[in-house]
Write a structure and sequence with these properties.
ubiquitin conjugating enzyme activity; Ubiquitin Conjugating Enzyme; 4-stranded antiparallel beta sheet; 10% strand; cell division; Ub_conjugating_enzyme
Length: 235
Amino acid sequence: MNSNVENLPPHVLRLVYKEVSALVADPPEGIKIYPSEEDITELHTAIEGPEGTPFAGGIFRMRLVLGKDFPAVPPKGYFLTKIFHPNVGHKGEICVNVLKRDWKAELGLRHVLLTIKCLLIHPNPESALNEEAGRLLLEDYAEYESRARLLTEIHAMGGPGGTSGAPQDPNDGPQPKKHAGDPTKRAGPSAAAVPAALGNGANGASTTSSNSNSSSTNNVAGKKKADKKRALRRL
């Protein structure tokens, strides 16, 4: 989305900056704030999955976008972390009354964040964006809980396949292979050793061939002598 900084009046920008600064200094419990220095109209947050829910242990990244008519019009909320929840659409859009008909300009961003966190505890299947999650919540809670927990473990708990609100350690993940010349690696046969080995093999083959030829010559000579002796006896 495009920035709305230029579209908001100066007094609204001052109010937003003041409220965001207060949120950073004193964030709601279980919520971290990551304001953008370049665009105050887009607020990134990380919400801890509440205990006792299928989302417990997960960190769910979310963003609030303030439109050009804020605060007369509520901000729009989006989950950036995949989540199986009746009130979160497949593109991350959030459906909650405080972001619609119940919005009042004086409510403020803190109230919005707390309401969205409460939505993780008390989903509302009556205004479901994810119809399958809403149906399972009403008809088969065990299956709903299992699906929601699975996506939490995959996408919200960090690790190789997951995403979280915490910055990723550059040392995480596979490390580059060491160079072939690393002295800690066991050395293989050197280039000089190969010709030497080939040379030894050639010399050995030559010696064997010479011995074989000499033995063959001796056998022929011995056979001729025996033939001569037999011929003399006949005489």
